[in-house]
């Protein structure tokens, strides 16, 4: 009984045949070139062929006409041999090339670790429970990090903690002046867009001049601080997470701890302080640039005079709106700094983990910014501000 | 005055220590003492928990059970301030140096001095130069960690660990990733520092030449049984240990049973 694969071997350098030397002995005959890039046959085909005939007790191989082979042949052989073992068929590997026999022997020298690949998956209820407890533990460590951060800030105010001036200045420069470009661009365009959308609606009622009110109130109360915070989350929060995550990978944070230097004081405090100082300034700047963007639309599209537009703006925003925006920006600054540092310090010790930490720093910051802004809106509404 | 008859407590005592990640026990029932000026090696195969044990001794990981005592004083039952004070007596040199990458070598060594002493910047500068010279890095003050080689990074890490003149120095895999000559120079540096400073040294390593060159005493952590299975002088352990695994480890598998790989 002989079978080959003439239909599938067209254009391929290998051939595979299963022969019966005796009814209970199957011989797998391989010829030609057996390399992994040659689209080698599926080992199960061998077994399909063998099963077509009477049951076998012994499997032999003939590779005397194989001209070239690499690990493709060995993986094929391993799969066939494993299957043979599972089916309690005795196999004789003497027919393989010498080198392949040695590789097979090496691959089987150390038995597969039971705990490695075949890790049992717990039932779904247990998985949900594990997820929930992990989430809860994550929230708890986040809150304790927040608490430590506030305590460190308090210690600094009472003069009991120290911040290295040189570190603080570097972070301030990075998160302040260097962010001006992108903050200008975004707030100018947002002011422009707000004014444009408003103008189209308000023109219908002949109330074009109220575009100034719309832009001024929206920028100072909401958009100025939110856009600045989102830009800082993507720019500076991500940088904090990546820096601290890499320091953690490199054991630099361990080195601080074992020296008795608190990473909170040494790494987190300067970053938090820098953002507490820079965020309100950037927000005021963003407010003004946004109003300028609105003014461009007002003057160019609606034909309003510049003096008229700015007079209207001044009448629309009181100091209250400005201060609300600044207060929010302070909170957002603390959020961006703490979340960035927290994710960085919690990061695992690999390149992939640092990437994850950076991503989750940005995502968490933005979510918190929006949620906190919502809370502000409700509270301010209740207070009637 | 009556002289004190009780012998002084050992410099370091590890008592009944159990180390675990969550519910997964890495090593249990670890107990040993280390005398003043001794060089103590923690050895074992990969994944046996050598570095984890070091992390427990220097306070980076909290033990699941047991304690570490320095001069008879508990590290893990001490109040926070007391523990910070103890920490300053320890110097740790990490596997890859762990120098703060945003600072020059001089700033790295100076930071603990600036933080914990009231020395003037000039005095600090002199001490920094001395420490860097001790590890053979004189003149490298203004280099950043990214600008020097792996062996130099490790030596700079040793200089930083010595900044506050600690009584106890820890080395995590000092010779890992170094060429044989750099690795041997680091061993010599460890011996030299012990001779000149009289400091107690705890070294985590699995490099046989280092173990035989520097260790007074060594402990062997077994990955399979998850506890220590030998304690003593490594040369004696190699020739006389009743544990086949230990003999195999110390002879690169040429004697005794095949060592546990894994």
Textual characterization of the structure:
The complex is a heterodimer of chains A (385) and B (262). Chain A is α/β, with parallel strands linked by helices and 385 residues long. Chain A has two domains: 2-109, Transcription Regulator spoIIAA; 164-383, no CATH class. Chain A has helices at residues 43-52, 71-86, 98-109, 124-157, 165-175, 180-203, 211-249, 252-258, 263-300, 306-316, 319-346, 351-383; strands spanning 2-4, 14-22, 25-34, 58-69, 90-92. In chain A, strand 2 and strand 3 (25-34) form a beta hairpin. In chain A, helix 7 runs antiparallel to helix 12 (351-383). In chain A, 34% of the residues are buried. By secondary structure, chain B is of the alpha/beta class. Chain B has a domain at 36-57 and 90-250: P-loop containing nucleotide triphosphate hydrolases (Rossmann fold). Chain B has nine helices and ten strands. In chain B, the strands form two sheets. Chain B has a six-stranded mixed sheet with strand order 6-7-8-3-9-10, sandwiched between helices. In chain B, strands 2-1-4-5 form a four-stranded antiparallel sheet, with helices on one face. In chain B, a hairpin with a 2-residue loop joins strand 4 (65-70) and strand 5. The longest helix of chain B has 18 residues, at 180-197. The model of chain B is unreliable at 258-262 (pLDDT under 50). The interface between A and B is medium-sized, with 16 and 25 residues.
